[in-house]
Structures are given as structure tokens and as C-alpha cells.
Amino acid sequence: MNMKKLLSLAIAALLTFSCALTAFAAADDSATPDEAKTPVELKMIEPPTKTYFWKDVILPPESIDGVYADSEHYYAFADKMDAYNFNPMLDLSGAKLEVVYNDGSTEDVDIADCTAKIADPFNYGEVMRTALDSAGTLTLDTPYENALKWYFNYCYSLEQQIDREYTVNVSYKNLTASYYITTSDYAVDNLIMDEPEDPDDGSGDDDPFAPTGAELYEVVSITPAKLYYTKADIYTSALYDGKAYYFFEPEMKGTKITIKNTRTGKLYTTVLDGTEDMNVYSAEVASLDEPNQVVRVNFVADVDDCFGITTPKGYNKNVEFTFNVYFNHQSTNDTATKDNVTKNTVTNDNGSVPTGGPITTMLFALAVVIASGALFLSYRKKFEK
Questions:
Q1: Sheet with 267-271: strands ordered across
Q2: Exposed, middle or buried: residue 358 (CB in 10 Å: 0-12, 13-18, 19+)?
Q3: What are phi and psi of 313, to 5 degrees?
């Protein structure tokens, strides 16, 4: 066998051996311990420090606060409340969580990467119907003592249903950990009507905005004159339970309202000019800096004065209106997230394209050098001939 054939066989053997080692090293390199780790458990090391008060619950927009009617009216209202569930503004501040991997290692979790949700919220319509069933029947001519007993039975049932622990599920990737919060009757403020008045004490005569009978009007729509408020609108502050609250006056002038007479179906629309007979409650916020705070606005208005109509005797002309405005509103048009990644190129943690281990690279380079030398010797011998 001449030198040229020996060199060709040597080159082929080296290239075959190099390719085999490259494939073996690449396969071995792709299964590093870090890449094989899988998250298997999310642990709540310390629960959030947030304590929930009446300011921390987003109430449904409808309310019977300030209303005294009969059982039929309240059951109809309960049916409307089926659309709403208990919705506290969950805050994970102070929580410490860690993720556990299948190899037993752990890692702290950033609460900014977690989402929280009430696992077992109560439904407003359900708790109200249960309370109504417990209280019995109420009519507009129910004697005062019986009506008062009905009222306290109704409120007690609401309290018994909602004054409990609620499970909060915290999710991170596909894992979940839980903790508990509690609430009390502040979460159903909008389900509590006025306490029946003693007909002998004359207390209702002092309030020009007290209900004047059964509910007749239904609010169809409200378009606020001013939707967004800032620090410039704050006019005073107050301390409550050691925490400061800040107040602003909602802008009523220019607000557009449509109501419906539930007996006739007729619609009435007005744009407030600010001179109407109404009682506007100050709106408050718990922080001057927190963005996108939802603030509930409440006011009671004499609809006869606002809409130029005459409410039939025995029906309530002092209607309560509620709507939401926003404090420190910020745009949410930015749809970019930190999870966006480029999928066209698979990269290592350092951003380099995977090429196999250093031993494989060295062997391949050696094979190339030997092959090049062999070819050189072959051609040199040819030239010497």
C-alpha cells in the first residue's frame, strides 16, 4: 500500500472519530444539571403584611344604602347583584415566597412576578337573598317594632355569612401557594338599607335627602363631567386608624345622567349645571402617589329638581347616584412585557450559540490540522516526482 492510500485512510479515520466525539460531547453538554431543573412547588414563607379595612374593597356600583323599601324590592335588587363577587384590592407587599426545584434546590420569588386571586369569594346576590330569607317578610306598612327586628335579623345574617377567612391563591408560573385574609360587614355596605325610623321621634324631618318612599327610579347611565383627578384636586386630609386619607370634591357640573321610571318605562336625561338640589359626598384616597386608584363617588339628588319631573306620593324622589372616577390615572397602552423573547435563535445563558464542549472543539481542530498536513505531504510527494 503506497503512502497516498495510507494518508487517505488516516484522514478518514480521524474525521470519523472526531465527528463521533463531537456528537457525544454535544449530547452530553445539552443535559447540564441547571437545564434539567424543574420547578415543582411554590412555598409561602411569610404571608403579606396587608391588613384589610373597608377602604380596601371594590364594592359593586349599585347600592341600597339610604333606601327603605319592601321585601319585593330587595329581592329584585338581589337578583341584580348576582353579577358581582367579593373583590378586595389584594396586596402582596411583605410576602416572601420561594420556588422549590426537583433537585431540592430553592430560589426566592419576586412578588412582582406573582398574581393573587380570591379562591372562595362570596356572591353579593346570594348572601343578600339568604339574609332576606332569614329576616322574613317586610312591607311598607310593617309596624316600626317589627320592621326594626326585621332589619337587625337581616344585618346579622349578612355578617354571619361574610365575616370569615378567605383563601387567596398566589400563582407563579404554573405553581400556586395560598394564604388567608379576613373581612367584616364593610364588604356589604351597599347591601344595607337605612334602619327603620321611629315614627315618634321626628328624626327624619331634619334630613332633606332622606328617602320619601318606595324606589321608583332606576339609574340607566351616568357620564361623569370629570373622570380623572390628581393631587391638585385634594383640598384636605384626615387620619383614620393611624392612616392618612385625602379628600377631593367630585365635579358635578356637566355630569350627564339618564334614569328610568320603572312603572312606566319612561326615560329622563339631564346634564347637571351645579345648582341642583343635591348632597355630594367628598371622595377620598389613601395615597397621593399610588397610580390608577379607583374612587367611588356618591351623591343624593332630588330628581324632581334635577329632571323637572314630579314623583308620585309614596315613592322616593331622593335618589342616590354612584359612579367611579380615577386618581393618578396612567396610560396602560404599553403591551411590552419582560417575558418577550426572540425564538428564532436558541441561545445559552451568556447569549452565545451552543457549539459543543471544548474537548470536542479541540479534537475537531486537531483532525483538521492532521488532515491538512497529510494532504500537504501527499501533494509534496506528487510534486517531487
A1: 217-223, 256-261, 267-271
A2: exposed
A3: -60, 140
Residues 10 and 142 grouped into a single domain: no
Q: Do residue 9 and residue 155 come from a single domain?
A: no
Q: What is the pTM of this model?
A: 0.47
Residue 49 is assigned to a structural domain of this protein: yes
The crossing angle, in degrees rounded to 10, of helices 144-162 and 124-135 is 140
Q: What is the DSSP letter of 186?
A: G
Collapsing DSSP states into helix, strand and coil, what is residue 285? strand
Q: Find, among 204, 201, 285, the residue nearest to 249 by Cα.
A: 285
For 233-263, how does the pLDDT look when each residue is reduced to its tens digit (9 = 90+)?
Answer: 998 888 766 788 889 999 999 999 999 999 9
Residue 270, strand partner residues: 257
**Strands (DSSP E) along the chain, which ranges?**
39-46, 96-101, 106-109, 115-118, 165-172, 175-182, 217-223, 228-229, 234-240, 243-248, 256-261, 267-271, 278-280, 283-285, 293-302, 318-327
Which range marks the domain in which residue 33 is found?
3-37+359-384
